[in-house]
Design a protein that fits this description.
363 residues; Rossmann fold; 13 helices; 12 strands; 45% helix; globular; binds nicotinamide-adenine-dinucleotide; oxidoreductase
């Protein structure tokens, strides 16, 4: 009889689930590999004090599958994976734990490549990198992109431009109004790019120090955190939390476009349909926030990470968003669904190409 774990894996056709354990350093980690049709599985390493093992397995599987779609839609030759470490990043993180995890990842021989996620930092990746070359978001000095907030911000702004083109016929930011929720790593850089391009920006953050520093640097308007989503603007740009698009918030939105970096913005998939019914164009989060992963993956190109080359690739998020909006319009489906269709079609195409090529090799 199948175990619960196999049932979970069968649900979305996962390839592998690796459990990594080393009692002497307090390491308990799970690496989920969803689909490697396009190439090795890419995904961050998350450290979180999960209440139960089931929660950790569930998170690893869910996040690995999301990475398959993110990589496929972004045109990467990588599949989806994720590593979760069951630990409290404030209390349990040690060099020994990180290096041991690095060794486990190395043992997979490149099946899984990883970088920073919730609860881990560039410095942690540099420690893991001592044990494995398959750790990517290290500093530029070590051949990686370093902090990926700026590259993620570039992708978000490209997404905003593509949406503006679809709604107003021009991608110009000059004179367009944008409400940015959260001015942390990504949001701060989004604001800088928007202001430079002549947009009228309003910001909010629960951290008053961050708000004050961004407002002073760019002269943007500040509103309280609970008012940012309701601003009458062209674009609402969530760069803080997930699930901000829900039954309560959507009827209160006064924007034409939602495009931001926050992960899992739709509380449920049906909220993507609800946005459509309200006449709001939604740029799927996993498409527009792929800049960080694209930067990390660039490290595998000849000569290691090159900022200019990575930025050129990230700038193509504009074309991806354009393409998925066109598909959504042609097939009368919401944009979140169109993004999934794009990703699924690309995986199916590569699967077919690979089967043709292996057929040719046999001849
Ligand atoms: N950093 C990346 O490369 C990257 C890549 C992909 C996706 N993302 C996602 O983008 C989002 C932002 O990432 P980040 O790296 O800038 O994180 P961050 O922690 O640096 O910034 C988040 C900011 O949101 C603020 N915030 C929290 N709750 C808020 C609220 N209710 N209202 C307003 N502001 C609030 C925080 O104070 C913080 O300043 C996250 O959802 C993250 O998962 C980030």
């Amino acid at each position: 009889m199948d175990s619960l774990t196999f049932k979970l894996m069968e649900q979305y056709d996962y390839e592998n689930l690796f459990f990594c354990q080393e009692k002497s350093v307090g390491l308990k980690a799970i690496i989920a590999i969803h689909d490697t049709t396009l190439g090795p599985a890419a995904g961050g390493t998350r450290m979180w004090p999960y209440a139960t093992e089931e929660d950790a397995v569930g998170d690893a599987l869910r996040l690995a599958r999301a990475m398959t779609y993110k990589c496929a839609a972004a045109g990467m030759n990588f599949g989806g994976g994720k590593c979760v470490v069951i630990a409290d990043p404030k209390r349990d993180k040690t060099e020994a734990l990180l290096r041991t995890l690095g060794r486990f990842i190395n043992r997979l021989g490149g099946l899984f490549v990883t970088g920073v996620d919730v609860g881990t930092t560039v410095r942690d990746m540099e420690i893991m990198r001592m044990e494995s070359p398959y750790i990517v978001t290290v500093s530029e000095a070590l051949g990686g992109p370093g902090d990926t907030a700026q590259t993620t911000a570039l992708g978000v702004v490209q997404g905003i431009r593509a949406c503006l083109k679809a709604i107003y016929g021009s991608p110009e930011l000059q004179g367009r109004s944008v409400a940015v929720q959260g001015v942390g790593g990504v949001g701060k850089d989004v604001v800088e790019r928007l202001v430079k391009a002549g947009a009228i920006v309003t910001i909010a953050d629960v951290d008053q120090e961050k708000v004050a520093s961004v407002a002073a640097a760019h002269g943007v308007r500040v509103v309280p955190p609970d008012e940012i989503a309701q601003q009458a603007v062209d674009v609402y740009c969530p760069c803080a939390l997930g699930a901000v698009l829900n039954d309560r918030s959507i009827p209160e939105l006064h924007c034409k476009i939602v495009c931001g970096s926050a992960n899992n913005q739709l509380a449920e998939e049906r909220h993507g349909d609800m946005l459509e019914q309200h006449g709001i164009l939604y740029a799927p989060d996993y498409v527009v926030n792929a800049g960080g992963v694209l930067a990390g993956i660039d490290s595998f190109n000849p000569g290691g990470f090159k900022r200019l080359r990575a930025e050129e690739t990230i700038a193509r998020i504009y074309e991806t968003v354009e393409k998925l909006i066109a598909l959504a319009r042609a097939q009368h489906i919401p944009t979140y669904r169109a993004a999934d269709v794009l990703a699924e079609e690309r995986i199916a195409m590569v699967r077919q190409v690979k089967s043709l090529a292996s057929g040719a090799e046999k001849k």
